[in-house]
Design a protein that fits this description.
This protein is an alpha/beta fold. Helix content is 53%, strand content 17%. It has six helices and five strands. It has a five-stranded parallel β-sheet, sandwiched between helices. Strand 3, helix 5 and strand 4 form a beta-alpha-beta unit.
């Protein structure tokens, strides 16, 4: 019986030592920091709250180090008029542009609304929208 207890004690000590040594040489991996990504946003709504939230997310993403491209499509090109009427939306759009953000607008959609000189976006094409989709790791629509 003493031999069995002695053997069991030796085995337990050996296991405890092995686990301790393993933890010493293989520490728990550090949590990875957020690695920047590329985000494309297609805004096709002219609902102020929806557009405002899209720009809030765009600004937060840029603050996290992500690259963000915004493409305005269909009713989304009306953002140019919405910022004139809504101070909160204008603040978000100005903050995005102030951080170096660029906003592209569908040229066909702009022309169909007789918006020949948009203030916040550049005239762009379907090929530009395709490039936004292909280039970015994440594409969101609003």
């Amino acid at each position: 019986m003493k031999k069995a207890i002695f053997s069991l004690t030796v085995i337990l000590l050996f296991l405890a030592y092995s686990i301790s040594a393993q933890e010493q040489f293989n520490p728990q991996p550090q949590k990875k920091k957020h690695s920047p990504t590329s985000i494309g946003m297609v805004i096709y709504s002219n609902d102020v709250e929806t557009v405002w939230n899209a720009f809030r997310l765009a600004n937060h993403s840029k603050n996290q180090g992500d690259t963000v491209q915004i493409f305005l499509l269909a009713k989304g090109v009306e953002v140019d008029n919405l910022v004139k009427e809504n101070k909160d939306l204008k603040e978000q759009v100005d903050a995005f542009l102030g951080k170096g953000g660029q906003i592209q607008g569908c040229g066909t959609c702009l022309q169909s609304r007789n918006m020949d000189g948009p203030q916040i976006c550049t005239f762009s094409s379907l090929a530009d929208l395709y490039a936004v989709i292909r280039k970015n790791k994440i594409v969101l629509t609003f």
